[in-house]
Amino acid sequence: RVHILRGKPGMSAAVYTQLTDVEIEVNGLLTYDREIIKGDLYTYRDLNTKVHRPPPIITELVPASIKEGRKWRYTTDTPSEGWMREDFEATQWKEGEAGFGGPGLKGATVRTPWVTKEIWLRTEFDIPARSNQAKILLSVFHDDEAEIYINGELLTKLDKWATEYVPVNLDEKASSLFREGKNTIAVHVHQDAGGQ
What is the model's pTM? Predict the structure, then answer.
């Protein structure tokens, strides 16, 4: 029945293990008659305890545009140098709701058509006070390569493409680029071929 879990958000793996063997098998944790435990009970306990700890608390700082579009400034013409900086003047850029893309892209909600080879996008968002221990995770649906900047600094580069929203873990240095209050996110996406 593990197959029914495929495609569930947050699912990364599943393991099926029989508790007991049948008479001719040797892959259970106990013998078929349950007389012999094949491993150390304390090791089993410790492994299972890790799995059953409370899940992390996830706070959405900026909603992805799965259900509701967020307004971005964008251009498909190569912008001037420094387009990703906080103080860059982008009021002449067009305004549209995410997602941006071509027709018929499976799994995406396209609200603003984009059919050229390049697109540059910018928006601002606020971060409330947060714990120093909090980690930041991006959820990104990109096709093809993407560069993401926060407050003028390169946050990450994503190769190839994704066929759905994928989590992007950020290390401590990248997470430190975010700050309480106003933040500017700038994105450049390059289209090669296929879906967009």
Answer: 0.72
Let me know: does 111 contact 71? Beta carbons within 8 Å.
Answer: no
pLDDT one-digit tens code per residue, 107-162: 788 999 999 999 999 999 998 876 666 788 888 888 889 999 999 999 999 988 88
Look at the chain and count its residues: 196
Confidence of residue 12 (pLDDT cuts 50, 70, 90): low
Count of alpha carbons within 13 angstroms of residue 163, beta-carbon side:
3
Query: Under DSSP, is residue 47 helix (H, G, I), strand (E, B) or coil?
Result: helix
What span, in angstroms and rounded, lies between the C-alpha atoms of 194 and 196? 6
CB atoms < 10 A from the CB of 119, how many? 23
Q: For residue 69, give both structure tokens.
A: 């579009």
Compute the distance between CA of residue 58 and CA of residue 43 in angstroms, rounded to an integer.
30
As to burial, measured by CB atoms within 10 angstroms (0-12 exposed, 13-18 middle, 19+ buried), residue 108 is: buried
pLDDT band with cut points at 50, 70 and 90 for residue 183:
very high
Distances in Å between the Cα of 160 and the Cα atoms of 47, 110, 145, 191, 194 are 36, 19, 5, 10, 11
Judge if the upstream peptide bond of residue 99 is cis by omega within 30 degrees of 0. yes
Asked if 99 and 69 count as a contact pair (C-beta separation under 8 A), the reply is: yes
Residue 85 tokens read as 């900086």
CA angle (109 as vertex; 104, 113 as ends), nearest 5: 65
